[in-house]
Specification:
Layout (H helix, E strand, L loop, with lengths): L6 H14 L4 H7 L4 H10 L4 E2 L4 E2 L1
Antiparallel strand pairs: 1-2
Length: 58
């Protein structure tokens, strides 16, 4: 899966996927062969943190 490069678009894309299709970030990453740590680091650098209880980045 090719992810958006722009961090704000990436944030929106990942949150939409989490909301509509996946029960956790790990589930999303595993299903799409994505490194969860790298994804989280990229979004964290843009000011977004994953909140497991909400299953979304904020």
């Amino acid at each position: 899966m090719s992810l958006p490069e722009d961090p704000v678009i990436l944030y929106s894309f990942v949150n939409t996927q989490l909301r509509d299709k996946y029960s956790s970030l790990d589930d999303f990453c595993r299903s799409n062969n994505i490194d969860a740590e790298k994804l989280s680091a990229k979004l964290s650098a843009a000011g977004f943190e994953y909140i497991p209880d909400l299953n979304r980045f904020m």
